[in-house]
Amino acid sequence: MENPELKILFLSDNFPPEVNAPASRTYEHVREWVQKGARVTVITCAPNFPQGRVFEGYKNRLYAKEDMDGITVIRVWSYITANEGFLKRILDYLSFCLTSFIFGLFQKCDIIIATSPQFFTAVSGSFLSIFKNRPWIMEVRDLWPESIKAVSAMKTDSKVFVFLEAIERWLYRRAAAIVVVTDAFKERLMEWGVDGKKIFVVKNGVMLDKFKYLPKNEGLVSQLHLRDKFVIGYIGTHGMAHKLDFIVQSAAGIDDQRIHFLFIGNGAEKEKVKSLAGELQLNNCTFLDSVPKEVIDQYISVTDVALVPLKRSDTFKTVIPSKIFENAAMLKPILLGVEGEARSIIEKYNAGICFEPENEADLIAAIHKLISDRPYYGSLQEGCSRLAEDFDRRTLAATMLDIVRRTEAGS
Questions:
Q1: Phi and psi at residue 268, in whole multiples of 5°?
Q2: Cβ distance 181 to 140 under 8 Å?
Q3: Per-10-residue mean pLDDT for the chain, 411 residues long?
Q4: What is the DSSP string of 5-17?
Q5: Where in the chain is the domain with CATH 3.40.50.2000?
Q6: Does domain 218-390 have CATH number 3.40.50.620?
Q7: Cβ neighbours around 214 below 10 Å, total
Q8: What is the CATH number of domain 7-205+392-409?
Q9: In what order do the strands lie in the sheet with 71-76?
């Protein structure tokens, strides 16, 4: 084992059995670190995302401790609410900030990592570093509160927004190191005056042993009435940023009966999007709730294409949706409605086809090309394989652990 004495305290408000991207990234990274000899304690809350209901088998207790694959997981109380309503979510974030700080004071560690969003988790990590006299690393998975502006969830000239931005800048200054998930994030932070020498890029990726090509699960194909369908799958949070109402409206303009949209997940916009499909009397859309992580590959298997859309916004040009990597590993070409760095990756590897965000004609044309040109579709699958190999989560986890060790050693 390497460096068995390194004790890492990791704060994250999302963690398995939750199945969203933040939970998966954190779990897969720290599990690798434990296997490499680090001692990792994760402080999180009772699993409840995105429906705001505590998962079966768990309770929203003040404190609970468990072992998960050698990771010490401490779950603390938080105000739990559905992923909808800005003020309620802020209360959720603030409560976890407080309880994670209180119980973090009692954990022995050499270094602290706090992941954002929500950046109030990073506030907790920063104050813990002060009280415990330990260095801390801020992991930035989203430029929050800038992403609030992108979905028009708050007036950017409000005092609250200005205050949140001030906290954000303070966190960047306080962190011993900053880990971001895209090159564009690093560039943006440097534009804001953050020292580029302490910013490191560790992109999202995929566990190649968990996600690999599978033939279509015939049981699910029959159960979901997808026989002889060309299935466009969206698997993930149904939020304001994803603009799924645009996708449903576009589905209404498709006459080809072979084409079917499969939406899997929950979120603030789920009921709105389902209602829209009902109003349009669509029979080419199926909606399912979130499914457990251990069977998600079976649901991906029944799809032909992975849909990855975001709302049209300059902010989203800096993001790389993590669902790209898992779908690519299963050889599902990406139907990407995101500009910027994500598009550059898809085009570099020829792993999918891109459409202009919120451009219905562009989206429909891309879908028709995917279903009609089989040699082209096959070439995209080859590109998916190359992309997945270059974004192996184990390699990325090792890279981040090296950053953690160097930051701790330099403190």
A1: -60, -30
A2: yes
A3: 76 93 94 97 93 92 97 96 72 94 98 89 96 97 65 58 82 95 93 95 95 96 97 94 96 96 93 96 96 93 98 88 96 97 97 97 97 97 98 97 96 68
A4: T-EEEEE-S--TT
A5: 7-205+392-409, 218-390
A6: no
A7: 13
A8: 3.40.50.2000
A9: 63-68, 71-76, 39-45, 7-11, 111-116, 136-140, 177-180, 199-201
> Cα-Cα-Cα-Cα dihedral of 402, 405, 406, 409, to 10°?
-170
Could you tell me which of 214, 278, 226, 223 has the C-alpha nearest to residue 252? 278
Name the pTM for this structure.
0.87
Report DSSP state, residue 304: S
Instruction: Give residue 1's pLDDT.
Output: 42
Residue from 293, 38, 329, 132 nearest 212 by CA: 329
Work out whether strand 136-140 and strand 63-68 pair parallel, antiparallel, or are unpaired.
unpaired
Where do the DSSP E strands lie in 171-243?
177-180, 199-201, 230-235
Instruction: Give the helix, strand, coil percentages of the chain, each rounded to 5.
Output: 45, 20, 40
